[in-house]
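User: Fold this; tokens only.

Assistant: Input:
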Amino acid sequence: MKKPSSAPKRPLGTPSHEIRIIGGLWKRTKLRVADKPGLRPTPDRVRETLFNWLGQDLTGWRCMDVFAGTGVLGFEAASRGAIDVLLCEQDPGLVLQLKAVQAKLTATMCRIERGDGLSALKRVPAGSLQLVLLDPPFESTFFESALKAAAQAIGPTGVVYLEAPKPWSG
């Protein structure tokens, strides 16, 4: 007979504090997620759809995860062959976590920058990126300005991914 667990049970619908990379070199690698208010990692299913749409092989791509948070979008791109991935995050605790993940994965193609991701995006040379990942805090007002900056940063065949709380029509 199974002994009852004394550990507190997680209520149904409560997200776990781990996410996994779903494709590429680091497929199935689990990453810890900090317990921070407003931090919402992009779900597996959404990432799977995104990277099916982009193609599984991002070899040679230059990417930027502008509001990195957990960094899962940027690390997914690196896992699939991107040669340069800049992950920007303002929260010092999340920056430390991003650096720990970078070390765990030996992700030398990833650069972590603490600071304003939107300002960093505006400094990127025009047309130099193949992929810009935008997942700003949903309560923010960054959507329009981030899209404008991303449009300048991507090349003619580049892609901008925007995650927003509702369909975007700006």
